[in-house]
Predict the structure.
Amino acid sequence: MANDPTKDIKELMKKLEKAREELQDNVVEVGNEAADLIRKRTRLGYGVSEQGGKKTRLKKLDDGNPKKPYTKRRRQLELSGNTTPAKSNLTQSGAMLDDLEATKTSKGKAEIDFKTEESKDKAKWNTDKGRPFNNLSKSEYNQLKEIIQKKIEKILKKLP
């Protein structure tokens, strides 16, 4: 006797629902991948002014000031290993970018934010000073899309 197609379809729908739930459980992991993309790009000296926009060089630290007081002051500081006194990459100590993390906001949704108020304040100050960085570029969205696609494929391979 042949299999009941209705039963097969119902079974497939249950498996797909389980796969959907598993993917939603991975939303924080995907959000942290996005935070890593922002961190890496920013440390290389690039920002993104709007979601889905193009990456652009971050504004110079001294804004054309010939005396370069900020760069001179940075020479006296103990800087993160990810920067130099004249490099504009929002990484004086590295703490602000290290504080980026994803948290689950609702089922299937996550938000990238900072762990501390101090880091939030630093991020706002930098953005207000013409160094927006806490957005994803179009190419970063495409990278995340590939990551999600691989996760979906992995989940679907587990289905019998």
